[in-house]
Amino acid sequence: MSAGNALTRSAPWRGTAWLMGKLGISGRTLVIAVPMLWLGVFFLAPFFVLGRISLAEALIARPPYTPLFERGPDGSLQIIASLENYRFLMTDALYRNAYLSSIRVALVSTIFALLIGYPIAYYIARAPEPKRSILLLMVILPFWTSFLLRVYAWMGFLRSNGVINNTLISLGIIDAPLRMMQTDFAVYIGIVYTYLPFMILPLYANLTKLDSALLEAASDLGASPFVTFFTVTLPLSLPGIVAGSMLVFIPAIGEYVIPALLGGPDTLMIGRVLWDEFFSSRDWPVASAVAIVMLVLVVAPIMWLQSIQNRREEG
Amino acid sequence: MRGWFLPLAVAFGFIFLYAPIVSLVVFSFNESRLVTVWGGFSTRWYGELLRDRQILGSAWISLQVAFASATLATVIGTLGAFVLTRFSSFTGRLLLTGMITAPLVMPEVITGLSLLLLFVSMELTLGWPAGRGLTTIIIAHTTFCAAFVAVIAQSRLRSMDESLEEAARDLGAGPVRVFFDVTLPVIAPALVAGWLLAFTLSLDDLVIASFVSGPGASTLPMVIFSKVRLGVSPDINALATIIIGFVLVAVLIAGWLMRRALRKGG
Amino acid sequence: MSQPAIAADTKPWRREGATPFISVRGVTKQFGDFTAVADVDLEIYKSELFCLLGESGCGKSTLLRMLAGFEQATSGTITIDGEDMARVPPDRRPTNMMFQSYALFPHMTVEKNVAYGLLREGLKKSVAYERAAEMLRMVKLEKLARRRPDQLSGGQRQRVALARALVKRPKLLLLDEPLGALDKKLREETQFELIKIQETLGVTFIVVTHDQDEAMTLATRIGVMKDGKIEQIGEPREIYETPNSRFVADFIGSVNLFEGKVDAVAPDMMRIETYELGPVLLPPQAGLTLGQQVWGAVRPERFAISRSKPENTPNTWQGVVEEMGYIGHMSQYRIRLSNGVLIRASQSNRLRDEDPISWDEKVWISVQPSAFRVLTR
Questions:
Q1: What subcellular compartments does it reside in (chain B) (predicted)?
Q2: CB distance from C87 to chain A under 8 Å?
Q3: Which CATH fold would you assign to the domain A92-282?
Q4: Rounded to whole angstroms, how far apart are CA atoms B121 and A277?
Q5: What ipTM was estimated for this complex?
Q6: Closest CA of chain C from B234, distance in Å
Q7: Is the terminal CB of chain B with fewer CB neighbours within 10 Å at N or C?
Q8: What's the CA gap between A288 and A100, in Å, rounded?
Q9: Do A1 and C91 touch (CB under 8 A)?
């Protein structure tokens, strides 16, 4: 048999191969280089720019920050960098409170999402087939419509003359409208509502893998359904709970849109603080410093936790 | 978890999911400007929506951005996933792994701000990109969508029987040929799913686009946000209804196609 | 030469100085700290059907993958038909492989799967499809040419995989557990079909399997592997009758092993003092010294079981039937000797209306001296 390789016979391939050979690039290197370069330039490099600008001072100019290098009076290059912005973040209680309340809001929302999502995931996982697929589709469906419009839907729902208040008043349950918009409560609802599918899907994936023979074995050994749930189902679904909670907690903590639309002026979240610092105060260096602190205090621990979780799953 | 509790909890969950959407749709047909008080059936807000040049223009921009960035993200995400699953060791492997997964956990405000600062510095030093607009939004969306595509492609590439690729090699195909003849057709459904996800994520994004866009390049979410911020407005209800109808039709068609494919497959 | 001359033509490995078609010399493969294949030497001749037999993880698949070119040997050389394979990628090797999972391209029809390799050689479409059709006729699948792999049964898929690998007329066909995914009945039928195809085409086959029956039926020669090393190479009969170690004796078929020391050596007889059976008489074997530790191996079917004491045989013991299993064509026995030692024995059920020996019967068992195989490791 002639060791045939069509690659060397067809003209376009031969041309490409020849060119790459001339340049001393192997196909392998080329394939690696494309994603590496794109992400290096547009994902990694921006953080260095971010770090550098967080050390500058705000100016009313274009660009609105001081340069990193400046020629001194004697013509020598001087590096201008100060930790002033970071000191400002540490002394001003606003920022500390914003960080803490972001974590609190994300945590509370995650717990509610778990409490609402778990029964749904459990029910779908135990449902017989056409029903199961239809319910699953119904969980995913809202996700495909616009996120912004789903948050907007709650504005119409929670307003003082919104659907909930109007219904309750016409039923005679309350006399005056409840104040729900522009509260932390509205923010919790918004986050839970938006990210509920992210909680349900990993839980569902985990619960369908649960062998129903285990539940039968538990009841055969004398456990009531209640006891079976807490001693068998719940411990075995722990990986699903962790995965789902991460998927809700992570986007919730840096959320901007939901607190901006549903929260009140006193709903402090770090994403909102950063946004306002940038768009309202036009202070790019402080916004950068907020972002850097957020990276170190929020993103880094999450990535660390995730890498631990991944390693545990593989091992 | 038996008896009345579970069905009740599930019913509550689904009401929670759908009640706001249903009310959104219902009030889009409301005659009254007051979004939550019924004033009779009307389609006037649909008419107003279709005359709104700002909304139509931004929708067109959003579609262009979503199409371009979903396509670019699929190419980059697939290459990244392929490299990570098929090349066992190369310099920078750890770096690439990090750069591909990190965008998934990165708060949008940070991604948006850092990319804007990059674009500004690049413009100052390299003269490109000149100003901000469609190009910068596409670059930003491609970058964060590529991560999502990569996750989907990676899990498909991992679960794929690698002996398929070896069989093609064994039968005389070179590495490039194997990729286009075997790998790509086998993972194609996952890539379609990845493209669709990237497309929706891009259409949906407000925060990143707000940072990196410039004058004259407002995406649909940016326009909606600026309107909604001031309070509810009925033409937004009409827009939401159109989007929901569109998604519903798309899902029904996809479901019908899938069922037909299943039946054909036997 | 002690072997008859005619055998040397069909069994080149018996002839001194014959040129091997494939030779593996000192090949080692390491994955990090783990040594999958350790310093293996192997010579395979043209038109052989060679089986690599061993448990999972013994290195047989790694050896096969090195022959195909999917793994690079850490050290050692592989030559096929005189050509060194070290720098030859899989797509340029004169080998083809049939994968354990069959690896049929799910997005191509049967016909396209089979023609794929021919098209990669640069053959014209019409020629490639003509040859693919011819090959499909040979494996009796011509009617299913337009189907997709997921519309075929397991047995049909197996034949497509075989056709796809054979259509390129490779010098060497590598088969990784070719019958592993089939059920027992189909496996037995397919075994003989595989031999027939191999003999018709005259292609050299190397088969990897963990199934000893499969290896015994298919192979011209078997290489038994353990922990990355080849324990023994030989014809099926040699492997069964004259295993060279306790591992091989135990791995192929079942065996009774008795540990002991060489006690006395005479020109026509040798005696071993065993712990389990006491003194055992057997024909002398070269290379043994007095007092050396050895193991006597006896296959269960070599024991004779009788109700009365047998005449004219030196190795006779008395015991009680503790367990008995009726298989149909034969019966298996576990016989407890008076000193507590358990013997595995079996008897074929030749007569229909025999009064079978059964549980708790007192019986005599005996074995001919020549039925013992003495092992030194």
A1: Cell membrane
A2: no
A3: MetI-like fold (1.10.3720)
A4: 19
A5: 0.89
A6: 49
A7: C
A8: 19
A9: no
